[in-house]
Protein 1
Amino acid sequence: MPALGFGVFQTAPEETVQAVETALRTGYRHVDTAAAYGNEREVGEAIRRSGLDRSEVFVETKVWISDYGYDATLHAFDKSAGKLGVDQIDLLILHQPLPSRFDLTIDAYRALETLLADGRVRAIGVSNFMPHHLDQLLRATSVVPAVNQVESHPYFSQPEVIAEDARHGILTQAWSPIGGITFYREGEGGSTLEDPTIAGIARAHGRTPAQVMLRWHLQQGRSAIPKSTRPERIAENFDVFDFELTGAELAAVDALDQGVRRGPEPAAITLETFGREIPEA
Ligand code: NDP
């Protein structure tokens, strides 16, 4: 899996084909979508239009909680693969733990294990799993998730989750890697893009704050999946392979952690509050 991928959360379906085509032209070879984003069809369309061979693009998508359960999750694969227009998904992950129905979460993961054994997916994983969710999952299932995709940016980096993932051999993948959730949602604590420490490091390298945050993830071994619909930012976020942050700079960004989650509390995710039907392919 290419460590740097392209995110499409909140990218409207009518913008998605162009955004993903631009990303693929820029050099990205990994796209992160989700059944719940409502744009899998357009991601698939962009990959076909790019002219790239299917094997050159790593496609990651997520099963929404409404499709948890063994049979329901097997069918969720059919829905996602059908919309994407692919036979095989490179990485299929559970979008959220469902703490109030962890039995369904485990059944959903067992379906992922079956899809993996059958070769319908190349890897399986989870998202927004806290260490105690991982423990519960690992006790009940046999395949260690390849990836745990969690909120991680300088203001909420989740070092304990990253350490626990590493202990199990799970790759942490950062969502909102440049802190999008600190500036596109109302909230306290400020925007990572305007952080003076990050801005100072950016100036020292002749780079942008977004590029510094992406380097910080990559140099510490995390995957990152920044989102943009603007060609110049799509290019900027990919142009991060020819400079290096020092150990002191990495530590300075680590020290910005405020320990306050910006995304939903995993415990607050229930079928009643967040459940919604995912359409058929
Ligand atoms: P990001 O950290 O990627 O930030 C995206 C925001 O930053 C957008 O508002 C974008 O606007 C803006 N932006 C992008 N590049 C730049 C730049 N270089 N300079 C300034 N602004 C920029 O946040 P996301 O929350 O979108 O996270 C990335 C991806 O992670 C998602 O798209 C999705 O794939 C995944 N995700 C997963 C979640 C989960 O629960 N598993 C939850 C949230 C996200 P514009 O488009 O106008 O450029």
Protein 2
Amino acid sequence: MKKIAFSLLAVVAAVVVVLVAQKRPHEISVLPLPVSVQASGDEFKLSASTGFLAEGAGEAGRIAADLEAEFAARTGLEFTEPQQEGKNILFVLEDGDENGSEAYHISVTKDQVVVKAEAPAGLYYAGRTLGQLLFQQGHSWVLPTCEIADAPRFAYRGVMLDVTRHFFTVEDVKRFIDRIADLKLNTLHLHLTDDQGWRIEIKSWPELTAVGAACEVGEGDGGFYTQEEFKEIVRYAAEHYVTVIPEVDMPGHTNAALVSYAELNADGKKKEPYRGIKVGFSTLDTRKEATYRFVDDVVREISALYPAEYFHVGGDESRVTEEEDYIYFMNRVKPIVNKYGKKLIGWEEVANAAVSSGDVIQIWKDRQNIDLAFSKGAKVLISPAEHAYLDMQYDSTSRIGLHWKGYVELDRAYNWDPAEVANVEGDEQIFGVESALWTETVENFDDISYLTFPRLAGHAEIGWSPRESRDWDGYTKRLVRYAPRLEAAGVAFYRSPLIEWN
Ligand code: TNX
């Protein structure tokens, strides 16, 4: 009898082993890497009766509905009216997460999924994470049971898109926003004016777009956003928890304005349109009052179009502006920016002018400008060209891109840290991290995709994840698992030979 019971037990045990082995526990892979993930080996099964429920209507409800739509599209499940008692996915807004408005907590058990955050942004990011947890097991779609607690390292995680060297439509910009938001980036810096084109309607200076917008690098017609279109970009971005910050680059990089209005030129004569890729040859006349009427109108009109706290004044590579004229100009522009309710961000050269605490200096090449910014109490936005410039070629065979800062393969784009660049212990003086896509060689969305992805995924992890838990091997594995999300979105990303793609 005992013997029979024992062998029965052995058989049962063997069957269990086989079953468990077949189930193959799903390895959780989320990019950017969350602060903490604890898997518990089981799964929550989705079915047509899974409800996507939010406590209270408003944003939480919209976020739940969006995730429902995303999961329906991916799984083919037709979710019916949710049953309150069923196995549901619940979105809860709850005070008390000390990690801020972007933090979230996910708890997946066999019976339900509960997402909690202090603010809608956190719920939205939890949705991005759940999207990466969903996988197919046999005929079912499941989420692995787990506890995830997550919050970003930096409050500002940005990417700059240059829409001047080549113009990109509102639709392109929206597609770009979809992708950056999925990586939990929260700021889109739009470089709106440069030598080759003026891309934003200014009602009080209509020639800027009538004349200054009709040009770009190469042969193209250029283009511009009407104020309504710009507001539409801002609205769409906000829906994806992305803040738009516009840049009007000055006093250099202004040929498109100088083409449009004679009075902005030192010699009182309009310039010729410029379709090349040289930099540093143009300047506003910093000693003319017309220039400051122009700047005031431009800052006033644009500032009224978006809610973000900051206005980017450019300020880079003003090589034909005398140093004292440059400082005089910036010292007059800053109060204008402040007058219209914005704080100033400028490229690192702006640190030479009267910046102070509250201002942000965007670092791209010279480390000494970091110390200069700190000495004036300003914070730094970290965008080192050798790691964070998305327009640098991956290697000598890259079909587009520049290489004045060398080649930036995926490892170079990932293996660095903002605190190291800024040479500081803590993160307090670092405003955030930003990648930059200059578009001299970028003509369409596939070009954007090729240079931006997958490098931007690495930058997103640098901005979001704890420094001590990041590592190249883990990142490359997460990237392989993330790739299908890019493919599904039609993103023609660069298949780096450093990665073993599936
Ligand atoms: C430098 S980085 C620039 C841009 C160019 C870029 C090309 C910076 C602030 N200015 O005008 O597009 O290099 O990589």
Protein 3
Amino acid sequence: MKIVVGTREEIAKKAAARYEKLLNERPNAVLGFATGSTPLDLYGELINLNKAGRLSFAEVTSFNLDEYVGLDGTHDQSYRYFMNENLFNHVDIRKECTFVPSGLDVSDEKAAQYDEAIKAAGGIDVQLLGIGNNGHIGFNEPNTPFGSITHVVELTQNTREVNSRFFASIDEVPTHAVTMGIKTVMNAKSIILVALGKAKAPIIRETVLGEVTPKVPASVLQLHPEVEIYLDYEAASLL
Ligand code: GLP
């Protein structure tokens, strides 16, 4: 694991530089994107680099980690909407080459086809991850098997409470989601995890220094050969 620590601004710039290098070497890269508040600074940097002509998404294919069940792409809390608003609408990516699991008409069988689509695209070159306070990656909650592929999950009460800040009330937070599995994430050739703020410090410590266990889904990253973890000083404060 390579760990990069800096201010919020510095780590967003450093992570963006990683994408600049990759996309200049491999313009048709397959990128795995994430949602949540954490990647917003990075997406802002990617938009700036795109506008400045320093990187292009014109040949990129992308796959997002997850989506809420029951929200279609026009719902302002759907992850499809988030990606359009915070990245895709502002860069030269071909929308038809951006994939987010569908939150409608879901089944495990349909979800598993997402893994097939990723394979057919050649596999993910760089998977971006945030991390939940309980160590979830995507929506893989504690005790998700490491062998899991894209599947339907029931969200924990903790995750629904944490994410309720984006909804009018907790009752509006979906109870289920579709998420890439742990194996789907681990199949990526390289992984970038970003964590910001003091609240993430304990789980970052467990992820990096703790036992590798399904109880802490992100701890599986210790087993991946190409992981970079970008932390602000607060998130890194317990390392
Ligand atoms: C959600 C997403 C995760 C994300 C997590 C942390 O549950 N499914 O992919 O990593 O929230 O969000 P934030 O970055 O806002 O802390």
Protein 4
Amino acid sequence: MRRAIYPGSFDPVTFGHIDMIERSARMVDELVVAVLNNSAKNPLFSVEERVSMLEGITSHVPNVKIRYFDGLLIDYAKEIEATIIIRGLRAVTDFEYELQIAQTNRIVNSEIDTIFLTTSLEYAYLSSTIVKEVASYGGDISHFVPKQLIPQIYEKYKG
Ligand code: PNS
């Protein structure tokens, strides 16, 4: 069985992430979407909220499981017996950092490979940071995230 892991912060999940999940799920038997539980990053959404958002918006993809992890990605990948790490590349600027991480991970565990997918062009500009920036000013985020998540995101900036 070919199991891959698609890790990220998903704070919040965007159309870009959903595109990556749908495309990578087609390549493997099982895709584990792994949410980083890292309070040091001071996320807008708790890990439980991010897991629940992902569960809601990936329910149409049968071979996807949503999990969260603490600590090193490579250790978690081994723990769940994933042999592939999936990462998305939006632009050349993503590449340098991603290459360094992929090479580091491979030194630590050479049985796990990283596969990069290029982001679909329509989402190449998109990031969770952009969504938060626009939402914080009450701007329109309907081009960036599924509509069922919009109230939850605006809620964080109320008050
Ligand atoms: O969506 P993001 O924020 O780009 O995802 C980054 C993520 C979660 C993949 C990365 O920060 C990660 O793997 N963190 C866990 C710690 C780790 O393994 N770091 C890489 C080796 S130094």
